[in-house]
Amino acid sequence: MSLPRLNLSALTHNTAKWPLPGKALLGCALAGVVFVVGDLVYLSPSRERLLQVEAREVALKQQIAQKTGLAASLEARTQQLQRMQAKVDELLQALPGESEMPGLLEDIARLALANGLLVESVTPLDEQSQPFFHEQPVQIGVAGAYHDLAMFLTGLGGLSRIATVHDVALRRDGRLLRLDLLAKTYWHVQGGGALVQRQLFVYDSSGLRDPFQRLAVQVDPLKGRPVRTPDLARPRGVLESLAVDQFEMVGTLSRGVQVFALLRAASKVHRLAVGDYLGPNHGRVTAIHERAIELVELFPDGQGAWLERPRTLLLNINS
């Protein structure tokens, strides 16, 4: 079975004989085909380019808004930059134009001598170059008492030359304290200027306790003076149930000519007078001073006799 062939000439010839509705329907169909083809060929690419242009317009409007905000704050940012540049110039002018290591070594020796310290080591290290300055570190080791070392450090901070202190280490070395630190001095290669005035910290040791000394200091802990055997049948007081190391002196109280010592233990303050007992070793208060109290304790010597040893409780000024 074969399909009939489509004869376009006969179709177009017969179209003129079609009724009016058929002609109108054919015209609409042809117009639709032309519209679809034109849309696909010409309008679709233009529509895509239009969407791209609209998206670019939105991005450009956002950029304009951002740059408008930056332009509004440009003057304030310029002033801030000028202030920062002036501060940098001031700091650079505070640096000397050449190394001051000899002067720093002289200052270290002078401060150590003035505070009674023993300089054990001074070791200059390699010079280090930075973008705007040079720095010269020196390792220092000194020995002495606690407050003297603190005065030495505050003296380093108060030098006219710029010197900074780093890597501070404090440890006990026999009867003294050993202080190791790294000091650095700086200079600017393009010349110096006036030093920046700054507020200095001054260490004042008056009224401060050396933290490396115990509050209760036992005098002559090994030897003692022979005494009579204490009354072992004597009733013990409340303060004799605690070790002396658990007490700290927090002040004194005067009533007429009589002076009392105020001792604190377990968050409770006790009042003692001369002759009162303290501690489990038959300790008895013998004298009360403004900053300390003295007592004697009794210890068996292991051979049937008893020894008397003095002891001192210092005032805790931090209480």
Principal-axes shape call = elongated
Distance between the termini: 122 Å
The overall pLDDT average reads 76
Structural class: alpha+beta
- Strand % is 25-35%
Give the SSE string. HHHHEEEHEEEEEEEEEEE
Provide a count of the helices.
5
Radius of gyration, in Å, reads 48 Å
- Secondary structure: number of strands: 14
Give the % helix: 25-40%
Uncertain runs with pLDDT below 50, 5 residues or more?
A: 191-197, 218-222
Main sheet overview: 6 strands, antiparallel
Protein name: Pilus assembly protein PilP
Organism: Pseudomonas canadensis
Describe this structure in words.
There is one protein chain. By secondary structure, this protein is of the alpha+beta class. The protein has five helices and 14 strands. The strands form three sheets. Strands 6, 7, 11, 12, 13 and 14 form a six-stranded antiparallel sheet that branches.
Feature tags:
319 residues, six-stranded antiparallel beta sheet, five-stranded antiparallel beta sheet, 5 helices, Transl_elong_EF1B/ribsomal_bS6, Pilus assembly protein PilP, PilP, PilO
What is this structure, in a nutshell?
This protein is of the alpha+beta class. Helices cover 34% and strands 30% of the residues. InterPro entries: PilO, PilP, Transl_elong_EF1B/ribsomal_bS6.
Topology (SSEs and partners):
Layout: H1 8-15, H2 20-72, H3 74-94, H4 101-114, E1 118-124, E2 128-129, E3 134-144, H5 146-157, E4 163-173, E5 176-187, E6 216-218, E7 225-227, E8 248-255, E9 258-265, E10 268-272, E11 277-278, E12 283-288, E13 292-300, E14 306-314
Antiparallel strand pairs: 1-3, 2-3, 3-5, 4-5, 6-14, 7-14, 8-9, 9-10, 11-12, 12-13, 13-14
